[in-house]
Amino acid sequence: MRVLIACEYSARVRDAFRRHGHDAWSCDLLECEADPQWHLQQPVEDVLADGWDLMVAHPPCTHLAVSGSRHFYRKQSEQAEALDFVRLLMAAPIDRWCIENPVSIISTAITPPSSDYSAMVVWSRRNQGDVLVAQEPAAAQANASG
Ligand SMILES: C[S@@+](CC[C@H](N)C(=O)[O-])C[C@H]1O[C@@H](n2cnc3c(N)ncnc32)[C@H](O)[C@@H]1O
Description:
Elements: E1 2-6, H1 12-19, E2 23-28, E3 39-41, E4 54-57, H2 76-90, E5 96-102, H3 106-109, E6 115-116, E7 118-125, E8 131-136, H4 138-145
Parallel strand pairs: 1-2, 1-4, 2-3, 4-5, 6-8
Antiparallel strand pairs: 5-7, 7-8
This protein binds S-adenosylmethionine.
The site of S-adenosylmethionine has 15 residues, from strand 2.
């Protein structure tokens, strides 16, 4: 599969896919921390339409994570911009995608979670209009430890 790892400079997810034989590429505004051979250092917006089979995205959570909710009142424009970026990723012309974020306002501003796991939230789509949201809250951690 041709796999785009959006908003990744560490190449950890990219290289995991490559180890499994996929044609995986990382893309970030930042320089790659690993082998730059399969890294696109540019805005991901510019490569979304380049014929990917799957996208895994790690968009910035700075203005979205509920852990920073006490600051929300003074960063509404940054938050709107961050949400628009997530919407843009969700609207990418890619049949399969998942978007990873900590528990964030994406759930209320864009689409609610449909599954719970822990502090990590994943939105995914297997095809147009099919949105799955997976979350990992304390309940799942309690189940895991209990
Ligand atoms: C939360 S970090 C994710 C880091 C990732 N987990 C990794 O291991 O490299 C969010 C990343 O999104 C990148 N980013 C922000 N806007 C971007 C854009 N328009 N196009 C590509 N990358 C972008 C940032 O540079 C930052 O590295």
